[in-house]
Design goal:
Chain lengths: 244, 193
């Protein structure tokens, strides 16, 4: 389409043409299909741009408000926790514990022990590219139950960045496995006092630590602190009924 | 369209347009669960559903504000069809598989169907226009942004340091350039068929 035509479109849309020019323009619209198609797109684009830039701030306000309402709505629909990376082993733990409970019920004479509960599934810490060799070491050591090595790796990782509660939790578990109860307990109780998503996990492991130390009363106290919506609530309930 | 009766659910459209939080909340409470279920049952999850729903509401808002959208059918059916269509398009894009749209429940002349189709074409055009606008040269982008933000061509000319006549001419030519970009894009031809 020639430049001249676009200038004509603009003049027509801003009503600057004389009566005669308007009729000439409209007859071209009727008779020339290319002219007609180009004009329609031109008109649509003008209206699009006008709306896009003129209404921009009102439209942004709407979109922000919408986003807030949407986020609140969808937050409510989700289960209480969002620890996506954890899920596989949480389910696996639940499954293995269900199995264990079966075994324990079958073998009801024995008291519950820490070893009934330390059946960790493989963990996965490495998520993105980059230098993650230390994370990998920690992950592999933990998964192969080389807890001494895992503990060293976690300690080093935490020394670099102590903001990751997930690492703190794993370090606690390795300490617990190594029977370093004082360190493990203080780490778990610190974690259990944060607002972190690992809060209830920390209480659970603190209870398991007491179980391992055969401090059954302290273990019971802790288990009772695990709220109903927590991951480990059911396991905790079962353990409570065995201890009481 | 104008002689058709406007449905009482137009209140939802007006509410969106006025950015009325109560209405937006009501839309989520009343109409969103059905969409979420549908998407979850068709290889999606709740995060995907959230995005689809948000995009759909933005499209409705844009159509209402630019084209004075008038609802001639219940909002429920219209909104559901729109989200569904958007979701199926999304699936098609990501899987390259043929997705059949099974509209057994609605007859062909259905009002909701027609209106949803109109809105989704509008939404796709908007996306296309936005994409093409980004392809324009910086000079055109700046001039058009200034033109539609400031509105007075005299001021635009002054702010860009050019004459009024030149700014006027440039505006037509830039929209002309955009027209050509749109015409040449394969997506536009798909939309028009």
């Amino acid at each position: 389409m020639e430049d001249q035509n676009y200038i004509l479109f603009e003049s027509y849309l801003s009503k600057e043409l004389s009566q005669e020019e308007v009729s000439a323009f409209e007859s071209r619209l009727k008779n020339e299909s290319d002219f007609n198609q180009a004009f329609n797109i031109y008109k649509e684009l003008s209206s699009f741009l006008e709306h896009k830039f003129e209404g921009e701030s009102i439209s942004t306000a709407f979109q922000n408000n919408l986003k807030t309402i949407s986020n609140t709505y969808f937050e409510k629909q989700k289960p209480s926790k969002k620890v996506i990376r954890f899920k596989p082993w949480q389910y696996a733990i639940a499954a293995s514990v269900a199995l264990l409970i079966g075994v324990v019920t079958f073998n009801n004479l024995s008291n519950p022990t820490f070893n009934d509960y330390n059946n960790y599934e493989t963990i996965s810490l490495t998520v993105r590219g980059g230098d993650e060799s230390l994370l990998k070491t920690a992950e592999n050591a933990f998964n192969s139950k080389d807890f001494a090595k895992a503990e060293a790796a976690f300690t080093e990782l935490i020394a670099m960045d102590d903001s990751k509660n997930e690492l703190q939790l794993y370090r606690g578990i390795t300490l617990l496995e190594l029977d370093k109860f004082d360190e493990a307990d203080s780490l778990f109780s610190k974690l259990s006092n944060t607002a972190s998503v690992y809060k209830n996990k920390a209480i659970w492991y603190l209870a398991l630590s007491k179980l391992k130390q055969q401090d059954y009363n302290a273990c019971l106290e802790l288990l009772k602190r695990i709220p109903e919506d927590a991951e480990d609530y059911k396991q905790a309930e079962k353990l409570i009924s065995k201890l009481e | 369209m104008s002689e058709k009766k406007i449905h009482e659910d137009q209140k939802y459209i007006d509410g969106l347009l006025k950015n009325n939080s109560f209405i937006i909340q009501a839309i989520y409470d009343k109409f969103v669960p059905k969409v979420v279920n549908y998407i979850k049952q068709n290889s999606g999850d709740s995060d995907k559903a959230q995005d689809i729903i948000q995009d759909t509401l933005i499209t409705i808002y844009n159509q209402a504000s630019e084209k004075k959208l008038q609802l001639t059918c219940p909002f429920d059916a219209y909104f559901f069809l729109l989200c569904k269509r958007k979701w199926l398009n999304e699936l098609k894009k990501s899987s390259n598989k043929e997705v059949t749209i099974n509209e057994a429940v609605l007859s062909k002349g259905d009002e909701a169907q027609e209106l949803a189709f109109e809105t989704s074409v509008f939404g796709e055009k908007q996306a296309l226009f936005t994409e093409m606008f980004q392809k324009l040269g910086t000079a055109c982008k700046d001039l058009l942004t200034a033109t539609f933000k400031i509105k007075s061509m005299e001021e635009v000319a002054k702010s860009l340091g050019v004459t009024y006549a030149y700014a006027r001419k440039k505006k037509s030519l830039c929209i002309g350039k955009l027209t050509e970009l749109v015409q040449k894009s394969p997506k536009f031809n798909q939309l028009n068929n």
